[in-house]
Design a protein that fits this description.
- The chain has 149 residues and is mainly alpha-helical.
- Helix content is 83%, strand content 0%.
- It is built from six helices and no strands.
- The longest helix is centred in the N-terminal third of the chain and has 32 residues, at 2-33.
Length: 149
């Protein structure tokens, strides 16, 4: 079960990154061209938030079945001295939860904005920060496509 969950979590990582890129491109293009907020931006925002939610759900399930996090839970003190255990046991989980919260706050803030310019500005701020947190929390030292390694 663990390898399947890990593979699904990895696939979702790429869907989150692609959705973030799509949303940020649409956001900054609309912001700089002073366009009206369209349903396409709304769809990009919804896809990003939905993919983040699915990724969080997979990550939380994975958190409780992963041998890495089991090792952290068995001896938290020793785990804090090991970079990889600390990253997966604390840092990765915390930063990703923060990124999901930022994405949801951004979604609410964008929906509450009355005019297109305000929507684009809020989208640029909230989703850029959320995406940067995601990028900071991805374990880039691991295989990018573990299915093929």
């Amino acid at each position: 079960m663990y390898p399947i969950l890990l593979s699904l979590h990895n696939i979702m990582r790429w869907l989150v990154v692609i959705a973030a890129i799509w949303l940020l491109i649409r956001t900054y293009m609309g912001l700089f061209s002073k366009s009206d907020w369209t349903d396409q931006e709304g769809k990009a925002m919804r896809f990003f938030v939905i993919f983040m939610d699915v990724q969080l759900l997979l990550g939380l399930i994975l958190y409780f079945v992963s041998p890495l996090t089991q090792a952290v839970m068995n001896n938290m003190g020793a785990a804090m001295g090991d970079d990889q255990l600390r990253f997966f046991g604390v840092e990765h989980a915390f930063m990703m939860i923060v990124a999901v919260v930022l994405a949801h706050l951004g979604s609410v803030m964008v929906k509450r904005a009355a005019e297109s310019r305000a929507r684009y500005v809020r989208s640029a701020i909230w989703f850029t920060i959320s995406s940067l947190v995601v990028l900071a929390a991805i374990p880039w030292w691991r295989p990018l496509f573990p299915i093929f390694s």
